[in-house]
Amino acid sequence: MSAMDFIKKQLEDKKTWRLQMKRVKALPEDYRIVYKEIQNYLFSFSAGSGMDTVHGIYDLIDFLEEGAASDIPVLDYIGEDVGEFAENYRRSIQTQSWLDDAKKKASKNVEKSLKKDGK
């Protein structure tokens, strides 16, 4: 990818993000509060460019818009335990996570050390 293509892609991604955030601003306040917490949770685990997480967040916005459009209180819609919902959602979107990298690194280090020790 050329530098110009990279810059164009970044600008396009930023434009898309801003449009998605306008959708979030249109949600009822309780939905916005929950959205922000889930977004923060998802980003705290993201790895690499984070774009897989971003696409999962766009799907989350779709999901929350459906609940808001149905006039369902947000905690009735996702459940009382927002943290549990966020974790289940993170797993369902199968994003790359720094936790995955840490797990692989730990296994690789042990394997390497055991081979070095002849075990």
What would you note in describing this structure?
The protein has helices at 3-25, 29-45, 51-69, 74-78, 82-93, 98-116. Helix 1 runs parallel beside helix 3 (51-69), helix 2 (29-45) packs antiparallel against helix 3 and helix 2 (29-45) crosses helix 5. It has one domain (11-115): c-terminal domain of poly(a) binding protein (Orthogonal Bundle). By secondary structure, the chain is mainly α. The protein is flat and about 65 Å long. It comes from Candidatus Enterococcus wittei. This is DNA-binding ferritin-like protein (Dps family). It holds the Pfam family DUF1048.
Protein topology:
Blueprint: H1 3-25, H2 29-45, H3 51-69, H4 74-78, H5 82-93, H6 98-116
Mean pLDDT: 88
Q: What is the straight-line distance between the termini?
A: 45 Å
List the domain count as a whole number: 1
Task: Based on the coordinates given, report the CATH architecture.
Answer: Orthogonal Bundle
Please, how many helices?
6
N to C succession of SSEs: HHHHHH
Name the shape in a single word: flat
Poorly predicted parts: none
In the CATH hierarchy, the third-tier topology is known as c-terminal domain of poly(a) binding protein
How many extended strands?
0
Fourth-tier CATH superfamily name: c-terminal domain of poly(a) binding protein
- DSSP strand (E) fraction? under 5%
Helix percentage range: over 70%
- The structure class reads mainly alpha
